[in-house]
Design a protein that fits this description.
The chain has 244 residues and is α/β, with parallel strands linked by helices. It has ten helices and ten strands. It is 36% helix and 24% strand.
Length: 244
């Protein structure tokens, strides 16, 4: 595993309508860290995530993933290195069965035959789903929590070194949310988690980055920032429910 898988220097981004979503971000992520990215709507969280595997290309500044600069010529390797799990699993699950959904990524990496079977089985086991039970299930008929797990399995099957999650607990019932937190806690990969769920952040992430109007206004210990009611309110965030 790369010792410093993500390095961001002076990253800025302006959308075509003139809105500046990111303003000179500098951020270093070390291997195996679980880092929360929090901020109010419009703070730049999603724009930042879309840069991490080249869905958006930096207009100003530089992102290095592993030892690769995020640019068009490196996108295939970068997307193998950084796996993104989107907020809505229906955006990722489009094959007829669970097995085909999880196999899609590694097959496009050129994996064949028994190796595909092994990768799919390992990924499903990693997210706590029984291979025989779920293999032929139709993804569209799964519960929200099951869909989320299959989406994560599809990313894990590609063996990325970094996992990026956009609102992972969104639309989950309390039991599924609890199971998701337990799952993310066990995964060894470096994780960046963009979320409004500050109680999840308290449970999972020792480090939190707060974005406000496209700028990093805090980068440090989770416990410290999520205990500071005035700071959170100043940046349109609420105290975690467990601290209210």
């Amino acid at each position: 595993m790369h010792h410093n898988p993500i390095s961001i220097e002076n990253l800025s981004y302006i959308y075509p309508d003139g809105v500046q979503a990111l303003k000179g971000l500098n951020l270093q992520i070390a291997a195996t860290e679980k880092v929360a990215i929090v901020g109010a709507n419009g703070s730049g969280k999603s724009t930042l995530l879309l840069h991490l595997n080249g869905i958006l290309i930096p207009q100003q500044g530089e992102i290095v993933v592993g030892e690769m600069i995020v640019k068009h010529s490196n996108l295939l390797a970068i997307r193998n290195f950084v796996g993104v799990v989107f907020q809505n699993p229906d955006d990722q699950l489009f094959m007829p069965t669970v097995w085909e959904d999880v196999a899609f990524g590694p097959m496009n990496q050129g994996v064949k035959g028994k190796d595909i079977e092994i990768k799919v089985a390992e990924a499903l086991v990693a997210v706590g789903l029984d291979v025989d039970k779920y293999r032929n299930r139709q993804s569209q008929n799964l519960s929200g929590g099951e869909k989320k797990r299959v989406a994560i399995a599809g990313v894990l099957a590609m063996q990325p070194q970094v996992l990026v999650f956009d609102e992972p607990s969104a639309q989950l019932d309390p039991r599924s949310r609890r199971q998701l937190i337990q799952l993310l806690r066990t995964l060894p990969e470096t994780q960046l988690i963009a979320t409004h769920d500050l109680d999840l952040v308290l449970e999972l992430c020792d480090r939190t980055v707060v974005l406000s109007e496209g700028e990093i206004v805090y980068d440090g210990k989770t416990e410290q920032v999520l205990s500071d009611r005035e700071f959170l309110l100043a940046h349109s965030l609420e105290m975690p429910l467990s601290r209210s």
